[in-house]
Amino acid sequence: MKAMVAVKRVIDYNVKIRVRSDGSGVETAGVKMSMNPFDEIALEEAVRLKEAGTVSEVIAVSMGASACQETLRTALAVGADRAILVETDADLQPLAVSRMLSVLAKREEVSLLFLGKQAIDDDANQTGQMAAGFLGWPQGTFLSSLKVDGTHLVVEREVDGGLESLRLAIPAVLTADLRLNEPRYASLPNIMKAKKKPLETVTPADLGVDPAPRLKVLSLAEPPARAGGIRVPDVATLVAKLHSEAKVI
Length: 249
Ligand code: AMP
Prior knowledge:
Elements: E1 2-6, E2 9-11, E3 33-35, H1 37-51, E4 57-64, H2 68-78, E5 82-87, H3 94-107, E6 112-116, H4 127-135, E7 139-149, E8 152-159, E9 162-169, E10 172-176, H5 188-194, E11 199-202, H6 235-244
Parallel strand pairs: 1-4, 1-6, 4-5, 5-11, 6-10, 7-10
Antiparallel strand pairs: 2-3, 7-8, 8-9
């Protein structure tokens, strides 16, 4: 069976995000970009299944500007066999991404569609769930473990109260949470080899999807700067302030 992994190019998690002066979005010019960390985990899981002989091919997919090719080359260096770039300058939102992923998953006849549980730029946590809806496939979200059991998957999900175990029929949509695995780094020889692996470019129109955004961001602002701390002389004053000023007790 084949696996597809959605990898998004996002602002690197170490970068301090700055809002554009006109409030139209966050500054991306000259900013370090990387693969979304949860997608690294999703990719690692798919590559491990390939190494175990459970999966025959891993296809990485990224959607956005042509620079997403860098993210795809990283995915190929980590172990994906081939890559598909859906190239567009449109402001992509989860609805369009999930539609396009579902079209590609059907076109490529994959059995497992892996995503990160959320992208660290929009924090939407919607794409996997909506892709499962479009495909009509079961979904295992927030995964902390995954085992293949014949025609089914046994997964553990991270939920508020602990862990939930599910048995899902294949094909399925799976989204990776932090504890699923520890992703590897791409080695230099594999980075070189990845340059020769196939990377196909398609457009949203080729997939029959209109990528136009349905939601409009009205404004974006930095959170207010934190006020400095104060020292209090004793516990009684601390308790009084927590009550009267912070209103936490
Ligand atoms: P979100 O629903 O936006 O939080 O994103 C959840 C997951 O969907 C991400 O971790 C990626 O696996 C996938 N995804 C979202 N946007 C894209 C994109 N533009 N290209 C590839 N994958 C994406």
